[in-house]
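Page 37, continued from 36.
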């Protein structure tokens, strides 16, 4: 519905803006930028920093523009001596307690606090510290590190965790100078209901929450002549890494990415999209089996590890609805250390599988005790020297971490040639690449399930109803005269709504896709900062463009997947698939 337009006066000029909008957004709408720190569109607007202060005629005090709505004929001043001094003073007070370690901080040169200090002309420190005690780092999570000393109490992390994800893993404790963000009973993220989604690290304006880095361990393995390093890249990396290297938002750089990774020294550069196609084969046949045999419905996708941890904590009674398929990352690790190891004549204990993922939760997933099926595969064959075990995936890097590795080697990323993935784990289809966008797994599964069930070829492979950035999308597919209803949700808040329906016995769906992060994997917690809705949409456009470019657009038509079944797996849901590609999950405490 169109909102009423009203006239307001900004810095002496008349403008028409939407009634009820905030002063900050009204100014942005007409091209006037008001500096701000704690405010973030669709995430947080608690007006704690006061950097966005402006003058309103009739008000004796400066007004915080992020939380103050416009009215007809309001007169606003955004630039005056009083305003500039207030903004600078407010920022200096924040900086008084902030560590002076920018050179060593992961957010150096991409820090909103640092950028704002430069723009507002802060060159000296006029205020003494009011906090003298150095607080310990929270390193309990396998995915994230919290540094409370760098926290400026903007509350963005709390807002995204509570409002967008409905997890509430963190909150403010204490009052006044003793206020700080922490977890329940100070037990740390690793002992909380945190889903490791990393959205907190994506919205944090400083280095108070960052991903736990595995870069040094990976460099060690690359340089070790006895270790064979295998790397896989998720679909969303090819539309994120260019951004992280300074290119435009949504830049599609698949070939350059492969060339850059190869230059880092990895022994093989493979594509997670290969096992995305494999996931569709297994998941599609699992859905068909459940529909035809009266299995638990709706079946819900299992690709997002943050989503899996969420349901384990909050809705364990619905775990039977989860697909037993592992995520593409974990399927890849299991195959790389079994089938590929045999094909290449490699010792599986000498293989290191490294993932590049848009998701911080993938670090957590790689460490899950369920994810060591390759070890058990070889243990049964008594071909292991070390019986202590090894994981299917050794390390999971974020998009940001891969960019750091590129910079460490001085790569001219934009000038790199286009190169192809290695075979046999590098061939994929358009169905696999769209895994990176919300609705993509659903669309890919429908392309295969429809043709397997009906025996007919789809004239049009696009399922437009499951595309887009709406929080929950619905579609109805006619299969042999039978309507099959499906749904797609992104963010855990929207997933909760669908789970409540299932809990109440009101769900009308046969199949549901859930992705933990806004926009799906392309908006993952390990993606470049900033990640806004505008940027997410550009990334999605590139993903769908890549789908068209790949030519083969259905997972079951991937010739390498067909060969894998013929030579090794035998059939979807078969005995080997059961042991290597499927798993189960269990209730976690709240």
């Amino acid at each position: 519905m169109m909102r009423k337009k009203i006239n307001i006066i900004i810095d002496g000029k008349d403008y028409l803006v939407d009634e009820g909008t905030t002063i900050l957004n009204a100014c942005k709408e007409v091209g006037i930028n008001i500096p701000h720190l704690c405010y973030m569109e669709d995430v947080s607007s608690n007006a704690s920093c006061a950097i966005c202060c402006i003058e309103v005629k009739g008000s004796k005090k400066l007004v915080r523009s992020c939380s103050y709505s416009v009215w007809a004929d309001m007169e606003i001043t955004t630039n005056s001596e009083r305003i500039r001094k207030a903004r600078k003073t407010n920022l200096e007070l924040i900086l008084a307690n902030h560590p002076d370690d920018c050179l060593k901080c992961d957010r150096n040169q991409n820090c909103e606090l640092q950028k704002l200090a430069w723009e507002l002309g802060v060159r000296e420190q006029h205020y003494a510290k009011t906090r003298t005690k150095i607080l310990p780092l929270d390193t309990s999570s396998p995915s994230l590190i919290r540094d409370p000393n760098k926290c400026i109490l903007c509350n963005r992390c709390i807002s995204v965790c509570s409002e967008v994800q409905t997890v509430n893993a963190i909150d403010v404790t204490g009052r006044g100078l003793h206020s700080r963000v922490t977890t329940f009973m100070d037990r740390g993220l690793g002992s909380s209901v945190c889903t490791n989604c990393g959205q907190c690290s994506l919205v944090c304006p400083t280095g108070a929450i960052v991903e736990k880095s595995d870069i040094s361990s990976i460099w060690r393995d690359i340089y070790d002549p006895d270790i064979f390093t295998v790397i896989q890249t998720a679909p969303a990396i090819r539309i994120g890494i260019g951004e992280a290297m300074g290119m435009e938002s949504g830049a599609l750089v698949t070939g350059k990415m492969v060339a850059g990774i190869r230059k880092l020294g990895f022994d093989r550069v493979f594509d997670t999209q290969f096992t995305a196609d494999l996931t569709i084969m297994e998941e599609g046949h699992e859905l068909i089996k459940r529909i035809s045999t009266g299995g638990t419905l709706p079946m819900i996708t299992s690709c997002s590890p943050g989503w899996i941890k969420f349901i384990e904590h909050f809705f364990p009674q619905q775990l039977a609805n989860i697909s037993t398929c592992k995520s593409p990352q974990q399927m890849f690790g299991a195959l790389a250390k079994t089938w590929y190891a045999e094909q290449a004549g490699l010792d599986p204990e000498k293989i290191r599988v490294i993932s590049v993922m848009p998701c911080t939760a993938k670090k957590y997933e790689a460490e899950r005790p369920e994810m060591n099926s390759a070890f058990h595969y070889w243990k049964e064959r008594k071909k292991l020297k070390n019986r202590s075990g090894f994981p299917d995936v050794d390390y999971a890097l974020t998009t940001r971490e891969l960019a750091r590795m590129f910079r460490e080697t001085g790569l001219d990323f934009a000038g790199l040639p286009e190169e192809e993935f290695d075979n046999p784990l590098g061939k994929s289809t358009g169905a696999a690449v769209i895994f990176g966008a919300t609705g993509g797994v659903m669309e890919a599964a429908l392309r295969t399930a429809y043709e397997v069930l009906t025996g007919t070829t789809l004239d049009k492979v696009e399922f437009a109803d499951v595309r887009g950035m709406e929080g929950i999308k619905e579609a109805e597919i006619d299969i042999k005269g039978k309507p099959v209803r499906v749904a797609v949700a992104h963010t855990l808040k929207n997933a909760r709504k669908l789970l409540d329906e299932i809990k109440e016995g009101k769900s009308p769906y046969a199949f549901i896709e859930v992705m933990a992060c806004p926009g799906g994997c392309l908006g993952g917690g390990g993606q470049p900062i900033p990640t806004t809705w505008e940027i997410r949409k550009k990334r999605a456009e590139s993903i769908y463009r890549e789908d068209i470019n790949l030519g083969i657009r259905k997972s079951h038509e991937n010739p390498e997947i067909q060969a894998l079944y013929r030579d090794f797996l035998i059939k979807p849901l078969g005995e080997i698939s059961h042991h290597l590609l499927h798993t189960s999950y269990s209730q976690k405490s709240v």
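The chain has a mean pLDDT of 96. Flag for discussion at group meeting. The first strand starts at residue 5 and ends at 10.
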